[in-house]
Amino acid sequence: MASVIDSALNPPLIDFRYATVSGLSGDEMFIESVSSNFERTGDDLTALIADCTFSEELEKLFSSDPETLCNLDELESLAAQLERDNESHSTVSKEKAVINRLTAWLAENNLKVDYATASVEEIAKWVRYFYATLRKSDGSFYSPNTIVGIRAALFRYFMKLRGLNIIAHEAFHSANLMVKNVCNAYLKSGGRVQHYEAIESDDLVKLASYFDRSTPTRLQEEVYFNVLFYFGNRGREWLRGLTVRSFREKALSNGAMAIELQGSTSKNVKGSSDMRLCDDNKQALMVAKPESRHCPVQAFQLYLSKITAGIFAFASAFLLVGIRRTSFCVRNHE
């Protein structure tokens, strides 16, 4: 142990807890070590701030007299530039393509509309006619997804241009009804909505062999997959809001046990993000398969018993993050 401290050494290079100085206790040396670290860190931070340089635009924003150095037009320019730099390239491209198509359609009909100054009623009228005439090059109707995408592009454009909501504004009621009529015309003309293909049986067998419940991670992955597979709501946002109270066990008329999703958010539900407030809540069930060693209800019950006991008893979230092999013991249900 050193009894003499070299004054040329910087404080952080010395651990005072293991140095001995006459007249000072070990606790006093520890306090001195922490204090010297704080002082050195403060000096380094001061030097770092002193070396910082700001761009000309930021200097204006942080100026003590912004009215003379940065007016509202310049602030608006900076904000607009930030928005442009962080917009999705594909979204901007689609938006431009749709606006160009609307402008070209107006020109074909000997019309010229100033989108920035025209009345809301005038824009709504021409947008409604535009929806009604949308066709593919072969004369057939566009799919509902394409029509909704075109309206979304117009919505973004007019919101940025003049804060005009072409979906919620009452003047666009007829135009939005036209969107529904065009989508119905697509279906009546023989068009079909393309869905994702079902998971093939061979792939389900491979998944079942992986979900052996040998570790906490695999058990959680199996339950995660089953929730998606059986309840099948669009998106992934609703998963974050799941709690242990989001599910309930339900006995069916044939005596089988099933798990029912009581409520969650879904992109499929219009008008409310809470499925419990909607009339079109899907009545999907996760039904038990007692004869199978991969019964989804058994996996669910096992997982639920683990996350509601021990160190996880305080957690209300259903899908816990960061479960490790040693988090809880897992045993297969044969």
Automatic annotation (TrEMBL):
Judging by the UniProt lineage, the source's domain of life is Eukaryota
Q: Which InterPro entries match?
A: MAVS
Which UniProt keywords are present, listed alphabetically?
Membrane, Transmembrane, Transmembrane helix
Transmembrane intervals: 302-323
Name under which the protein is recorded: DUF3504 domain-containing protein
